[in-house]
Write a structure and sequence with these properties.
The chain has 5 helices and 7 strands; from the N terminus they run E-E-E-H-E-H-E-H-E-H-E-H. By secondary structure, the chain is α/β, with parallel strands linked by helices. The protein has a single domain (18-138), classed as 3-Layer(aba) Sandwich (Rossmann fold), CATH 3.40.50.2300. Helix 2 packs parallel to helix 3 (79-89) and helix 3 packs parallel to helix 4. The longest helix has 13 residues, at 30-42. The protein starts with 12 loop residues before the first strand and ends in a 9-residue tail after the last helix.
């Protein structure tokens, strides 16, 4: 299946002598997936992508990355269903919900948090903001990005 990597990772991997973390980006927008992939690869993350929720859940089962960025609005299995399924199977998963649809985001973001998302962010966002949010989530800080 396109976008799914068939290898199991440990929490951290060695790549070029640099300790790296892994991230799974689940979004139906190929431009955003590619941009986020480029940003996090530049920061020495092991990056995996999925173009929809079904692919994202399947990928996480195989990869079990340190963190997941999941779009809320996707065709087929939406982000809330994706978060619910990953958290049911992997309650320790760290997921950040993303959305570019503004009207009603607060309700969807609250639902994402109720399902176990560690944070939520509106799209578009600045690269430095998403990096800070991901790093904060991985550091275990109680940082909450305002969705508005």
């Amino acid at each position: 299946m396109k976008g799914i990597c068939y290898k199991k990772l440990t929490d951290f991997t060695r790549q070029g002598g640099v300790l790296t973390k892994s991230i799974l980006i689940i979004d139906d927008d190929i431009s955003l997936r590619n941009l986020l992939k480029e940003i996090f690869e530049h920061l020495h993350y092991e990056v995996y992508v999925a173009s929809n929720g079904k692919e994202g859940v399947e990928s996480y089962r195989l990869i079990n990355t340190n963190i997941v960025l999941a779009d809320i609005y996707m065709p087929g299995k939406d982000g809330l269903e994706t978060i619910r399924e990953i958290m049911r199977e992997f309650p320790e998963a760290k997921i950040i919900a993303m959305s570019g649809f503004y009207q009603g985001n607060m309700d969807f973001f609250q639902a994402a948090r109720d399902l176990g998302a560690v944070d939520c962010v509106n799209k578009p966002f600045k690269p430095e903001d998403i990096v800070r949010i991901v790093n904060s989530a991985l550091g275990g800080k109680a940082y909450r990005h305002s969705p508005i």
